[in-house]
Every structure is written in structure tokens, then in C-alpha cells.
Amino acid sequence: MLPRDPSQPHRVASSLELFFDLVFVVAVSTASVQLHLALAEGEFVHGITSYAMVFFAIWWAWMNFTWFATSFDTDDWLYRVTTIVQMSGVLILAAGIPQAFQGDFTIPVIGYVVMRCAMIAQWLRASRAAEGPLRSATVRYAAGIGAVQLLWILFLFLPTGPIQLVAFVVFALIEISVPVFAEYRHQTPWHPHHITERYGLFTLIVLGESLLASANAIIEALGEAESLAPLIGLSVLTLVVTASLWWIYFWPPHHRAITTFARSLRYGYTHYFVFAAAAAFSAGIEVELAVLTHHSDISAVAAAMTVSVPIAIFLFGIWFVAIRDNADRVVNTVIPVGALVVLLDPVLPIPVAITAAVMVVIVVVLVLRPPVERS
């Protein structure tokens, strides 16, 4: 398992990586559904907290595999088998997400530990062929990941409530510090175009959830004669917003955002909010559907906020991590201001109307003002 060439031309995602992503479709969809159910019941704090915890496990496991694969993907039989073991952990995690929203994290933690133990095996295998500082980095990865898994097992024995929540935050911070601990002296090689392509593919997964929500609006409309026009309108606006999110995300040259180790950390960690917000947007649309079809008693303002807040977070996140360094003053004004204006959406009686209009304006500006070349 020798390190891959970070300057290899035409490096693209492998079929194994695409296959690997499929199990995350299941996990993201399950998390989004549970968030929608919690928000529709008015359980905002509990729903958002549970979702943030579950999505952390999804995002971190995916991101760790992705960065490892860009450095050490050998695509031999052992690498494939170990990757499939990681996929089994994701499916176990996904199966336990409904219980996690009820306060029982046993199954998600088991699935997460399975994923991470397989990742330890990958790093130990990489260490056998690595030399010098690179070998030290791979060993530190394996040791750091293994130590944190003991903390997650301890997490299961903590009482549900504030203590467990505080422990989660502490353990999560320790988990995301492992790459800093492992690579502070010598960095593993990464392929900028390959790694950012992988992030783009995961973005398509979370945006796909929003397209599903748009289709659900039409399906609901077919059986709700009284709400036909609002539901069809919501479906159209959802498609407009989702397409705009796609346009905005893929506007900047992402590979420029990971030119150094510090910038790669910023890029990777900020994507937690980008990914989580995009998936939460689909849950917000489902909440709007529940309100329009009288299956939820929360207020129209609260329902609209479940859509506008995730969109604003997505815009701020992708602007901060990839757009602002590649844009002129106009673009760097329009996007942050647009994100703030989106938060006004709840004041309108038409769901998603302001958001859709703002998103279209942003896309038009991006079309007229392409990314600037930086020396």
C-alpha cells in the first residue's frame, strides 16, 4: 500500500468509492427523515441536537475514508474487503438512527466503531509500506483513532441528558483533532482534484434528498385537492432552490481551497455544516409539506425557518470555504447578504418564495461574474 501520486493526471473517483457512497445515501436519508419527524412535532432542540450528533458520525466516517483513499487507494482485494466492512458499519449506524433520536445511541455507536476499526486496519496496513515521517503519521492515525473509539464505548455508559451531550462534544473535538495530531510533522499526500471531486459527489447525495422532497410535494398534491396549488408551488420552488444550491456549490474551483494542510482542514471541517445544512433543507421541505397538509401543528413561521436557516448556513459555509478567495467584491457581497435575506423568508405567507428569489439572483450574479484568477 504505497502512497498515491498527488499530481497524477486525470485522477477521478473509483467505482469502489462510488459504491461506498451508496450506503451514505441510506444514512443521510434516515437522518433527514428523523429530523423532519422531530421538527414536525415541534421538538426543535431535541431534533436538531440529535441530528447534529448523528450527522457528525456520518460525515466524519465518510471524510476519513475519503482522505485516506486519496492517499493510499490500492484497489486490491484486501482494500476492497476492508472498505466493504466499513460499509457494513454505515448500514448498522443507519439502522440505529431512529433509536438515537429517542436517546439510545447503542446501535449507532456499534456501527461507528465497526467503521473506525476497519479504518485502523487500513492505516496499519499503510504503515507497513511507508517509511520515515510518513510511517509515523500512519501509526499516529491508527493509535489516535483507536484511543477515541474507547471513548465512544464509554459514551454508551453515561446517563442520558446534559452529561452525555457534553461528553459527545468533548469526544467529537478529540476525534477531529486526530488528523492534526497525526500530520503535524509530515502530511500524507492528497490529490486536490480527486478530493474535491469526492466532496462534490457527497454534495450531490445530500442535494438528492431535496429533490426527493420536491417529488414528495407533487405526490402529496395528487391526494390533497384543497392544497393542490400550494403543494405544486412548493415543489417548483424546491427544485429552483436545489438547482441553485448545486450551481453555487460548483461555481468556484474547489481544488484551490486545499493548497496547504491548514486550508485542507478548514475546507474539510467546514463541510460538516455545508453537508448537514443541505440534508436538513430536505427535512425542512418535508416539514412544510406536513404543515400544508395539516399533519403538523407547528406555526407557519417555525416551518419556514426549518427551510431558511439550513439554506443560510449552506450559503455562508460554501462562501467562506471556497467562494470568497475566488470571487470579486460583488460576489463576496451578494452571497453573504443573500444568506441574511433568506432568513426573512418566514415573514412571507408563501413558503420558500424569498429563498428561491434570492438563490436565482445569486446564480445570475455568478453567471455574470466568473471566478477570478489568483496568483
Helix and strand pattern: HHHHHHHHHHHH
DSSP summary, beta strand count:
0
Low-confidence segments: none
Query: What fold name goes in the CATH topology slot of the largest domain?
Result: I/LWEQ domain
N-to-C span: 35 Å
The domain count comes to: 2
Percent of residues in beta strands? Answer: under 5%
Rg (CA only): 21 Å
Helix content: over 70%
Total count of helical runs of at least 4 residues: 12
Label the overall shape: globular
Protein model, in words:
The protein is mostly helical and 375 residues long. It has 2 domains: 15-183, no CATH class; 192-368, Up-down Bundle (I/LWEQ domain). Helices cover 77% and strands 0% of the residues. The protein is built from 12 helices and no strands. Helix 1 runs antiparallel to helix 2, helix 1 (15-40) crosses helix 7 and helix 7 packs parallel to helix 9. It is globular. The two termini are 35 Å apart. The mean pLDDT is 91.
